[in-house]
Amino acid sequence: MKSHAKVVVIGGGVVGCSVLYHLTKFGWTDVVLLERSELTSGSTWHAAGGMHTINGDPNVAKLQKYTVELYKEIQDYSGQDIGLHMTSGLMLAATPQRFDWLKSILAKGRYNGLEATLLTPKEAHEMMPLLDPDQFVGALYDPVEGHLDPYGTTHAYARSAKKNGAEIYLHTKVEELVQREDGSWRVITNQGEIIAEHVVNAAGLWAREVGRMVGLELPVLAMEHMYLITEDMPEVADFNRTTGKELMHCVDFDGEIYLRQERQGMLMGTYEKACRPWSPVTTPWDFGHELLAEDIERITPELEVGFRHFPAFNKAGIKKIINGPFTFSPDGNPLVGPVRGLTNYWSACAVMAGFSQGGGVGLALANWMIHGDPGFDVFAMDVSRYGDYATLAYTNAKVRENYARRFSIRYPNEELPAARPLLTTPVYDKLKAAGGIFGASYGLEQALWFAPAGEVDEFSWRRSNDFDVVGAEAKAVRDSVGLMETSGFAKYSVKGPGAEAFLDRLLACRIPAVGRMTLAPMLKHDGKLIGDFTLAKLGEGDFLVIGSGIAEAYHMRWFESQLPKDDSVELKALGLSLLGLSIAGPNARKLLEKLTHQDVSTAAFPFMSIRRMDLGMAPAIVGRVSYTGDLGYEIWMKPEHQRYLFDLLMEAGAEFGVRLFGLRALNALRLDKSYGSWAREYRPLYGPFEAGLGRFVALSKEADFIGKSQAAKEKAEGGALRLRTFILAAKDADVIGDEPIYHNGAVCGWVTSGGYAHASGASVAVGYVPKEIADEEQGWSIELLGEILAASLQAQPLFDVEGTRMRS
Question: What positions does the domain GCVT N-terminal occupy (predicted)?
Fold first, then answer.
């Protein structure tokens, strides 16, 4: 075994071998893979081997498309047969609600070039005669689906990597990881020690254990997963004989099952409600090419539905039942990328759909390691999307929920209950008593809307029972004043003698004067957006940065990677040590004036000002800014003062009819102003000028901020896209994001977010279109739930075009 390597990949499943191959493909050949047993000996060997390109997240779908297209390449290059069967596939809907969901999936795929088609039950039956058309209301046909041989595919990656110079050591168990002072790693194994510049945790079932070697508790859990294989079925043989084809892959969401042909029989697998974690605390190192005990009774409810939907199974004998463990993250997506706080320690685990996503994961991680960027927007798979709230017990609860719901509909207004409430603020009970309906974001309970007594969210693809109430909340803000909690924002303190220079290089904006705020885009080295913030200068060397709550760990990882090494900057994520309330509306100033002796008039406290002030008896930081686009103030306080300030604001606001409002009303209000949001309009896919943030990019400032040259190039060349707002001729539903935008009948762009702007009475869609047609006034339409609806370009904000309300 060699003593040094640039990279050590731990784990010889399909993901580890894909990472190894992609590193060598892109030029890093001094790479080693360590496997404690044989290749595929974790979850890979007993996988069903299915693959597809369709995914609810279009960015993940792109990586799945890449994975499927890669298979012929690695088969040809390695000379290893991977047993590829491109059968095409059906996604089936047994209810109108599920069919609406399939329509949304079809629409999302249009601008990614996925060639799917909606079918009637009769058409689906003609393609897949085992199904009973009377059990379904429709289907989605995807020509790019199929299955392969897990063993052959993994070995094809491995052989290709070895052909490029990689080395693979089997029966080599990693026992300890120790980081040296220079940042390199001592990888201590039962066969000796390797010094590596980088370590990749692709350990699958043992990912937790490899994480714990460096003090990391990864949010990953293995679940028992069962599928059965039937005896030969005459219906299968007849179809093969008469058509010359193999039966296609099927997913029956309402039956919680999937199936495909296996030789002359069929394979049927389930994601059962009565799911069971496997080895929930530690994974035994001696577990290998083994299966778990059969437990067909546990999946009987799903099989009963499956046998009803596919009657031929009632006459088929069962040849084999496979029960093996697969790893999942709390939301079912992989955990990929650099781990914050650890130099050159990379995650490539929880890849449950390894044969749909393994190639894309390898591509993204290899890009990231070699070029410093994954080359795609992979936030949905980024290991940093979880914070330290994702404990072992949290992960157990959320993974079980995700597994049991894998084939269930997740409505756009549906909030899942497992592991909640976990994080709450001091006013949680008060908001709940007022009718608050909550969602959880980054572990924190946040009020979405305030329901009348006895009402709860009614989940739907279409406008639901919250519609009128959210409208009333939004109009209360526009007419007088509203109060909402803003504790869910991420808050960062940046202090020290080097703080200003650090932020001047990190952010594309100009650094504001003391007592002032500014909007602050943050760019990667390629000039694309990696964050958008409000930057406030509280004093010399004392800054407060406000950003998206879901991206706290993601942004802290970036901030920390850019810190100077001279200890001149003190950086801290404030989390729930600083909480927030916000008031907005034309009477917001009058309300604030009742609580302080300070002059908060426009002359003394203009728009984008910030200062420390006492409100009643409580010290606070007050900024004159509001995401509603109205006159408003954000108020930040210590947790021990939040209940007091909440009561004070509600009592003082009573004369103005102050009303609580939640995140859904805030979304409606920001759409009035065409304001964008992180992870939707602003993400690493787009440049600042494409996103409409160019006026906040200070190309003329002296500091050579990250991405400056690329931003200047984008400005000069214009970029490829433009963010635009559209008014949609909607009926009983509004866009939520990822719907295709058409111009003169051709797909040209995509919706990033939207909804109903209640105060303006309009259904709004925000999205990206090519710059060449971005200002065309005619010819626009948007697809929503299977219908092509007329849309009109909204060149100006619906509310307060000149911005006088928020500034006066």
Answer: 428-701
